[in-house]
Amino acid sequence: MTRAIAAGIAGCLIIAPCSFALQNPFTESFDADASNWVDGGFAPAVYVPSGSIDGTSHVRTSFNFLNAQTDDTINVLRGHDDFDASGDAFVGDWLSGGVTQLSIAVRHSASVPLTMFTRVATSGNFPAAANIAFVPVLPNTWTELTFDVTPGPWILEFPMGGFGGVFGNVGNVQFGVSTPAALAGVDQDITFDFDNVQIVPGAGSLATVGLAGLAGLRRRRRA
Question: How many domains does the structure of the chain reveal?
């Protein structure tokens, strides 16, 4: 099945047009390095070889809330096509590519639970859409957050082209935090750990990719 899916991605023009770079399903597990992901200030994320949600490697960023006010939204991890993050596996048309969910595992060193969010944008950073995870991320505990790629839960920023204007041309995937009152103005570096950034297709999309892969395998056998 894995080979069929890979072949389907390579030959998806058999069924419908698809992005050159987008891979769906795809999981960035940071096995060897930070895969060109950066923090909110565009500094490279730090590769950590162990201690992730499954005991293996992950990436780390940090932020100091000294100059932040309560409820300020702070980006702490970016996967941008300008840096070829994850080989641009997240870049492209998520809608025609069948992406139905975005998920990530996160841990932080703050003393209070944090509210995290994701922000998805085009390569130029606008238009964009944000989605808040209404699951408190507890201190020093790995938490898996999942965001459905459907119009309802997303807040559009400068909604040029609407939901499709963002998810039809994704170039920038970000994760961030809403500043809690307990940290606003506090001079303390808070670390954020991330692992398993993942996009997945719906059942119908996965079946289509699988069929395309099988078609490709049959053609190669006949050749």
Answer: 1
